[in-house]
Design a protein that fits this description.
alpha+beta, Muramoyl-pentapeptide Carboxypeptidase, domain 1, four-stranded antiparallel sheet
């Protein structure tokens, strides 16, 4: 009898639980249906119902957001019935930390979401559901915030081609709609967002530097050093204690022993470290240039770091196991193998007028004893006026005029009526013979590209004595061409044969194992020793990017047509030609 009663009670409890579960499920379904109807109304409406979406980032077009919800019959993503899913709170935590990446949390509707969340939590405390309209807007805002933040992490905030005419990069891509669905279904919002962060160690080191400088800023920054005479070791100057305070803040001076006005060896060594980090001659002398950089505020440095973090978000996932990187702003070249720099040398880059572009291309061969064919711009602006004013200029400078139809046919300059010649009707190609006079030097390192830019030797080696080296017409001159050529040709290529090639008088091409060359522009980075480096913005590309990030006309989200979801046409400059 007792067993029958116990069994009956168990069955009754199971029935009650089942009935209650069905009732709860029905209620949840009812709430979801209400939210679904409001979401559909907001997305389809062009009238007052679309008002809640005013100001929402248009990074994703209306059709894509619509498709995201349409494929799930407009059911909410972040709300289950009347309750907010835990993933929504996880997302908000990630958005609150956007500043650690140099991003602005309010670009991801954080203020609006925090307000709606407070209302939702207040209702939840009283066991009341949020109104259907508010549930719909909250769900849409969460989706928009996730997609926008995720896109900024994986691609950057702006398209580099919209901010810079001569910047081409192979950016990372991800199907963020599918990633959003995966993140919700598998409770991995935080992990998905973390996986979208640029994987490069350099990016992480720059994040650490940003955190350090943000902390310095929060504690009042560093002092400004008043103008005054140059300070050298052994001098006494009332500004020296202030110098030490600044250098302690920046980390260039670990501890202070002296406290007087003497410019001692310890302070001088710290100034030398500061100079190295900023691309100056490390003579330990506090002159006008050093003083100018000492007085750049921590807020300006923070912004410089933020701009370079944005550039890292434009970078491909991998540069290749073996590759070359040129940092135009640092006038330097590095060769990398398996993530380690195995070679480094100084380079000369383009002037402000003829900037070296940013792009990547495959180096496939070297050309020894190269001809120099004068590009159209240099022909028009530099060479033609000299040719017309000086009859012997071509012979003296080892130039020949070559037929455009056949490079083996030369044109006699004495048969040309130079009074009738302009750059537009020049009778052939202007080409310089190989030799010590040739601006390309003894070798070119070729990676075919639309800009006609390459690495090469130079006959003006004295220019490497300058600290700032922007003298070329766009191409990149390397300081140690023989060392680089030896590395690229491999260990099996004899040093004797290489020397013969460097002494050759006729052009010869030698194929190499291909590797990618990345021409880049970094004005802030952290080296492997932990030193935060800054460089002048020689091409004003930091300024261009800062404008692009703050002016809506340049932002990607405003370059997408909401009705069609397509990008505006980009200004492609296909006519660029570069000289040495």
């Amino acid at each position: 009898m007792f067993k029958m009663l116990k069994t009956t009670i168990v069955i009754l409890c199971f029935w009650v639980a089942t009935v209650c579960a069905e009732q709860v499920s029905s209620v949840v379904a009812l709430f979801d249906q209400q939210t679904s109807e409001r979401i559909e109304g907001v997305l389809q409406s062009r009238g007052p119902m679309s008002a809640p979406l005013v100001g929402v980032s248009r990074l994703f077009s209306h059709e894509e957001i619509f498709k995201l919800y349409q494929q799930r019959e407009f059911l909410p993503i972040w709300i289950d019935g009347w309750q907010l899913k835990p993933e929504a709170l996880t997302l908000l935590d990630s958005l609150r930390g956007a500043g650690a990446h140099g991003l602005c949390s309010n670009d991801y509707l954080l203020a609006e979401l925090e307000g709606l969340l407070r209302i939702q939590m207040d209702f939840a405390r009283h066991n009341l559901p949020l109104a259907p309209d508010n549930r719909a807007v909250l769900d849409l805002f969460l989706s928009q915030a996730f997609l926008t933040f995720a896109t900024h992490l994986v691609e950057g905030q702006v398209d580099p081609a919209l901010a810079h005419v001569d910047w081409r990069s192979r950016r990372r891509k991800a199907d963020l709609i599918k990633l959003l669905e995966y993140a919700i279904e598998n409770h991995r919002v935080s992990q998905v967002l973390e996986d979208l962060i640029p994987p490069h160690e350099e990016y992480q080191r720059l994040l650490d530097a940003l955190s350090k400088y943000q902390t310095i800023s929060a504690h009042g920054g560093w002092p400004e050093i008043p103008a005054g005479p140059t300070i050298r070791q052994g001098d006494r100057d009332e500004r020296v204690p202030l110098l030490r305070t600044l250098l302690m803040k920046t980390g260039d001076l670990e501890s202070v022993i002296a406290t007087d006005d003497d410019y001692d060896q310890q302070t001088r060594a710290a100034i030398s470290t500061f100079q190295v980090r900023h691309g100056l001659v490390d003579d330990g002398v506090v002159g006008p240039k050093t003083l100018e950089l000492l007085n750049v505020s921590v807020e300006e440095r923070i912004r410089q770091i933020e701009l370079n973090l944005e550039r890292w978000r434009w970078m491909p996932k991998s540069f290749g196991e073996r590759h070359i990187r040129v940092n135009v702003a640092d006038f330097s070249l590095q060769v990398f193998e398996d993530g380690e720099a195995v070679m480094q040398m100084a380079v000369i880059v383009g002037t402000q007028y003829r900037k070296t572009p940013v792009f990547s291309a495959r180096m496939t061969y070297l050309e020894f004893a190269p001809y120099w064919t004068v590009p159209p711009t240099i022909l028009r602006e530099d060479k033609l006026p000299k040719i017309k004013s000086h009859p012997d200029y071509l012979e003296e400078k080892h130039f020949r005029i070559i037929s455009r139809e056949s490079r083996n046919i030369t044109i006699d300059p004495l048969e040309i009526d130079w009074e009738m010649v302009e750059a537009s009707n020049f009778p052939g190609l202007l080409r310089m013979d190989p030799g010590p006079w040739n601006p390309l030097g003894r070798v070119k390192f070729m990676f075919p590209n639309r800009f006609n830019v390459y690495l090469h030797d130079t006959n003006q080696r004295y220019l490497f004595d300058n600290n700032t080296r922007s003298f070329s017409s766009g191409c990149i001159r390397v300081k140690s061409p023989q060392m680089l050529a030896s590395y690229l040709l491999g260990r099996n290529f004899g040093s004797g044969k290489l020397q013969e090639l460097f002494e050759a008088t006729a052009p010869e091409q030698i194929s190499i194992k291909p590797l990618t060359v990345h021409i880049q522009y970094w004005t802030a980075w952290v080296d492997r020793d932990g030193l935060v480096n800054f460089r002048p913005d020689i091409y004003f590309r930091d300024l261009d990017l800062d404008v692009a990030l703050t002016e809506p006309a340049y932002r990607v989200i405003d370059q997408l047509q909401v009705s069609a979801g397509t990008r505006l046409a980009k200004n492609e400059n296909n006519g660029l030609r570069r000289g040495p």
